[in-house]
Amino acid sequence: MDRAVESIRLRLERACAALETAGVLYAVVGGNAVAVWVGMVDQGAIRNTRDVDILLRRGDLERATAALAAAGFVPAISFGVTMFLDGPNAKPSESIHIVFAGEKVQDNYTLPAPDVAEAERPTTFSVLGLESLVRMKLTSFRLKDRVHIQDLIAVGLIDRSWLNRFPAELADRLRELLDNPNA
């Protein structure tokens, strides 16, 4: 287990370093971004995640591909998801998944993904700002997204004062999680 967690962390750091060296703007999103924000309050409440999700502008994909390939990642597309496998024999779960800024992750989503300009630097790599990250999680609202929001609520990063930050549909989803924190 320790090796698996360490390998994900090293993959994340290697990808971020490659993008930074190439001057490509990015933001870590998904479970790793949630872990950064939760860890700033309570390191013991961090939840491990299987993969690395990175937000990029589509116009930077060519430069990002060159940078990530130079760091040993192999470009691939699986189920319509642009990714970079961690080596030629890696599985999609051992990869960097790309989310494109300003585009909907799925057609039925209410909002597109935020821009990389909404990133912050609370650690050694760029992470999507907390409000933008919560908006992404409320937009997708899968089980793992709801759990991530519950983690942010549990450590006190989100409360009822956040309800007015989002459109009605997303505010209703957040209210549901605030009203039923253990559901």
Describe this structure as you would to a colleague.
It is built from six helices and seven strands, in the order αβαβαβββββααα. It is of the alpha+beta class and 183 residues long. Helix content is 41%, strand content 15%. It has a domain at 2-129: Beta Polymerase, domain 2 (2-Layer Sandwich). Helix 1 crosses helix 3 (61-70), helix 2 (30-39) packs parallel to helix 5 (143-154) and helix 4 (130-140) runs antiparallel to helix 5 (143-154).
| SSE pattern, N- to C-terminal | HEHEHEEEEEHHH
Structural class computed from helices and strand pairing? alpha+beta
Oligomer: single chain
What number is the mean pLDDT?
A: 94
CATH fold-type name of the domain at 2-129: Beta Polymerase, domain 2
Number of strands: 7
Cα separation of the termini = 27 Å
Q: Could you name the key traits of this structure?
A:
five-stranded mixed sheet, single chain, 183 residues, Beta Polymerase, domain 2, 6 helices, alpha+beta, globular, two-stranded antiparallel sheet
In short:
The protein has 183 residues and is an alpha+beta fold.
How do the helices and strands line up, and which of them pair or pack?
Blueprint lengths: L1 H20 L5 E3 H10 L12 E5 L4 H10 L3 E5 L2 E5 L9 E6 L18 E2 L6 E2 L1 H11 L2 H12 L13 H12 L4
Parallel strand pairs: 2-5
Antiparallel strand pairs: 1-2, 3-4, 4-5, 6-7
Helix pairs in contact: 1-3, 2-5, 4-5
